[in-house]
Structures are given as structure tokens and as C-alpha cells.
Design goal:
The protein is mainly α and 486 residues long. The protein is built from 18 helices and no strands.
Length: 486
């Protein structure tokens, strides 16, 4: 498996380079039209990405060796499953808080809270005490919730309300962040492997390495973002003013907090109303809940499936992220002017690939007959499916969910997502707690079979969505016609 992992990384790197070159050659005009040449916008975009990419880098560094660290501390698989459940449950509990905090405390303050909470989460990894590690998972859940809301909230607010840039430029920034995100993920696996295995510092090393990145992120948020706010004249009544601003009256503070709370609950209620009133949104939410909850279970299971066979986990993680990158480039190619495939079709393909990968895993993880190379191939196919899935579902969400309701609707999407993942891990905990877990007890194989069944349900939801919106212009790329159009 050692040689297989490195060979797979070389092949995937070559595949990504080839696909990227083909994408740029086939759609040079399309790439050029998404480039914004406004100097003020470019400066603001660079300022945001400087802090946001540091946060993403710190997050990715913790991916390859989390399960390995818990095993290094001699915890059983059933105990580790509970740790993961605590992280997911905290995501559910803190999701409303993460949506409310930027409005109540200010967006930049919330980004600083993320840096502090995630740094504390990394420090808890130095302890072998189970309850300290549970506290770390809770802090990790809070940090993950803040990462997905606070940075985007700060950027969108400054972009639209302060700088008055066109809303059409927002996807340019987040598209660039997504491109960097894949590269950071691949590099994070290599760096984590370097410190944990090549230098022999152990599985805790990547977590300690993430702390300086979080400190640097906090410094950028505190100084550079604060200076940007001062230059833009956002002090005073703006909640994003100086962190050490002047005192305000208790009455105005109470009104501000009540206003933030009212806005948050109104957003949630309007999001629920949109979810229940539009069947397209409901089906899309079902697909997202089923697909992404399975990914949380995959994040837990890939290490115990492969680690007994001795692969370098950081390199395997880089392979998985490279496969996801290949999928995202394939999406760009497929939706380019030359091929013009519809995102709904690619979403269907992604779910099919995910179903096939879990179907493979039910056989490659048979008790007493593990086939790690087949399991690695199935994991790579699943990550390829993820690379197709996320841009496809993002496109469809942008078409069927109004911009002003998107935060509230996505919050409702995440609730069943995390609950399904928690139930899956609890079921796995029940299977392995009395058997020794892993392949010996068959719990892993049964969980993969359950994931395949969930992917089959997601596929039915995708087909229903495609049938419902066959001639719906909102679900199609511009310049293409439905089956019933002339």
C-alpha cells in the first residue's frame, strides 16, 4: 500500500494537470469573462483571501491524522465514534449560534472567535484524557460552524453594503477561493505526512502546526481587516467597528441584540417557508442531506479501513483531495461551451458514482478478506463524485433558492444532514462496541451497505428533481433548451 499510495498521487497529479490544461484550452473566453479588472475590487478580494485561506489551511491540516491520533492514544473504535458524534452534534447545536453571532457580535469579531476556538481545539489534542478530547470535538464543531458562516458573511457585507461592488462579482471571489481550497487540501496532506511520518513527530504534529496558521489568520482579521473597515468608514454604529470601540448605552446595545435575534429568526422562518413551498428546494435539500451525511461517515471510516495495511495517511489524504480536484475540473469541462452538459445531469452522475463506490466497499471490506487497493480505488471514486457534486448542487441552489433566503434554507438543510451522520456513527458504535470493531466485527461493511442504500435514495430524489424541472429554465445553463422547447 505504501507504493500504491505514492503511485496514485503521481497519476492523479498528472490527471489534474492534463484536465486543467484542457479546460483552459477549451474555454479561454469563458475564463477571461470571469476576471474582474477593477483595482479596488482586486485589493479587497486579496485582503479577504489572505485571511480566509489561512483559516482553510489550518482546517485541512487537521484532516489526515485525526482518527490516527485517537488510535495512537489507545481508544477503541467505538469510543472514537462517540468523539466524532460529539463533533457532529456540536455542529447541529452551534449552527443557529453561528448564524446569529455575526449579526449580534459583529462579523469580524466572530472570525476572531473562530481563530480562538479552533486554536483551543488543537491544543486539546495534546491531552490523552477522553473528556478533554470531547471538549476539543465540541470546540471543533463550533469552529466548523463559524468557518462556514462568519468569513462569508463578512465578505458579502463589505462587498455589497460598504464597497457597493456588483453582486455578480461575488462568485468570482468564492470561485477563486474554491480553486485555492483544493490545492491547499492536497498540500496539507503532504505537509501533515512530512511532519507526522517522515520527521517522526507523530499524529499530533499537524494539529500543532495548525495553530500558527490560526494565529496568522487572527492577526490578519484583527489588523488588516480592521484597517480596511476604518478606511471604509465603518466605525461607529456599524457592528463591525473597532474591537475596542467606545462605550455605548445599555439601551442601544439591547436594541441591537434584539434586532439581530429578530433578523435571525425571521431568516429561519422564511427559509422554512421557502423549503416547504417549493418542491424543487425540498428535493434538493433531500439530496444534500443524504449525500453529505454519508460523507461525514466516510470521513470517519476511511482511516480504519486503510491504516491497518500501512499506507502513509497524509499521502492518501492528498490522493483523495486530488481526486476531488479532478472532479471539479471535469465539471468545468462538462459545462463549458463545447460540451454544455447540464448540472442536473452531472449531479445525477455524481450520486451514481458515489453509490457505485459504496457498493464496491461492501465487498472490499468483507470480514477476514480485506482488499485495501480496491477500497482505496472506491474512496478515490467517491472523492471524484464529490468534485462533481459540490459545484452542481451549488449551481442548482443558486437557481432555485433566492439569495436573501439562502442562509436560512441552507441552515435547514444542514439539520437533517448532521442528524443522519450522527445516527450512522451511533449505529456503527453499537455494532463495533462489543466485537472489537473494524473489519473483524463486520460493522464497517454494514455501514457501507447502509451508505449505498442512502445513495440510492439520493439518486431517486435527483431523478425526481430532474423530471420535475425538465423544461425549467432555472435548472439549466443559459443558452440551452428544454426537451419541450422549440
Amino acid at each position: 500500500m505504501f507504493v500504491t499510495a505514492y503511485l496514485a498521487l503521481v497519476v492523479l497529479a498528472g490527471l489534474c494537470i492534463g484536465l486543467e490544461l484542457a479546460s483552459r484550452r477549451l474555454s479561454p473566453q469563458q475564463a477571461a469573462t470571469t476576471t474582474v479588472a477593477n483595482p479596488a475590487f482586486c485589493r479587497f478580494q486579496t485582503l479577504f483571501l489572505r485571511g480566509y485561506l489561512l483559516a482553510l489551511w489550518a482546517d485541512w491540516l487537521q484532516g489526515p491524522y485525526l482518527y490516527k491520533l485517537y488510535r495512537h492514544y489507545s481508544f477503541l473504535e467505538s469510543q472514537i465514534a462517540i468523539l466524532y458524534v460529539c463533533g457532529l452534534a456540536s455542529c447541529v447545536l452551534f449552527a443557529p449560534v453561528a448564524g446569529w453571532l455575526p449579526q449580534a457580535l459583529g462579523r469580524r469579531r466572530t472570525c476572531l472567535i473562530f481563530c480562538l476556538a479552533y486554536s483551543a481545539c488543537c491544543i486539546t489534542k495534546l491531552s490523552r484524557d477522553y473528556f478533554v478530547l470531547i471538549l476539543g470535538r465540541v470546540l471543533g464543531g463550533l469552529s466548523t460552524s463559524l468557518l462556514t458562516t462568519s468569513f462569508e458573511s463578512w465578505y458579502v457585507h463589505r462587498h455589497v453594503d460598504v464597497h457597493d461592488f456588483p453582486k455578480e462579482w461575488i462568485p468570482v471571489t468564492f470561485g477563486k477561493a474554491a480553486n485555492w481550497n483544493h490545492g491547499l487540501a492536497v498540500c496539507a496532506g503532504l505537509v501533515a505526512n512530512l511532519f507526522a511520518e517522515w520527521l517522526g513527530l507523530g499524529p499530533v504534529a499537524p494539529f500543532l502546526l495548525a495553530i500558527p496558521a490560526l494565529v496568522a489568520c487572527g492577526w490578519v482579521v484583527l489588523t488588516d481587516w480592521g484597517q480596511e473597515e476604518k478606511l471604509a468608514g465603518a466605525e461607529g454604529r456599524d457592528k463591525n467597528g473597532p474591537l475596542l470601540g467606545g462605550p455605548s448605552s445599555g439601551l442601544s446595545s439591547t436594541i441591537g441584540h434584539l434586532s439581530a435575534r429578530t433578523r435571525f429568526w425571521r431568516s429561519c422562518l422564511e427559509g422554512l417557508r421557502c423549503l416547504l413551498s417549493d418542491r424543487r428546494v425540498l428535493l434538493l435539500g433531500g439530496v444534500q442531506a443524504l449525500f453529505e451525511s454519508v460523507l461525514y461517515i466516510f470521513v470517519f471510516l476511511w482511516t480504519p479501513v486503510l491504516d491497518p495495511h500501512g499506507p502513509p495517511l497524509g499521502i492518501v489524504f492528498s490522493c483523495l483531495m486530488a481526486a476531488s480536484l479532478a472532479g471539479s475540473i471535469l465539471f468545468r469541462l462538462a459545462t463549458s461551451v463545447r460540451y454544455r452538459l447540464q448540472p442536473a445531469h452531472l449531479l445525477c452522475l455524481a450520486v451514481l458514482l458515489a453509490f457505485f463506490s459504496f457498493f464496491m466497499l461492501t465487498f472490499s471490506t468483507a470480514p477476514g478478506q480485506p482488499r485495501p487497493r480496491e477500497s482505496l480505488l472506491a474512496f478515490l471514486l467517491l472523492e471524484l463524485a464529490c468534485g462533481l457534486y459540490f459545484p452542481a448542487v451549488s449551481f442548482l441552489q443558486g437557481r432555485v433558492i433566492p439569495v436573501e433566503l439562502r442562509a436560512g434554507v441552507l441552515a435547514w438543510f444542514r439539520l437533517p444532514l448532521h442528524l443522519l451522520a450522527c445516527l450512522g456513527l451511533l449505529a456503527l458504535h453499537g455494532e463495533v462496541s462489543g466485537t472489537g470493531g473494524g473489519e473483524a466485527g463486520g460493522g464497517t461493511r454494514h455501514m457501507f451497505a447502509g451508505c449505498a442504500a442512502m445513495m440510492l435514495a439520493a439518486l431517486l430524489a435527483v431523478v425526481s428533481l430532474f423530471t420535475l424541472g425538465r423544461n425549467d429554465a432555472d435548472l439549466r445553463l443559459e443558452g440551452t433548451r428544454g426537451d419541450g422547447e422549440t
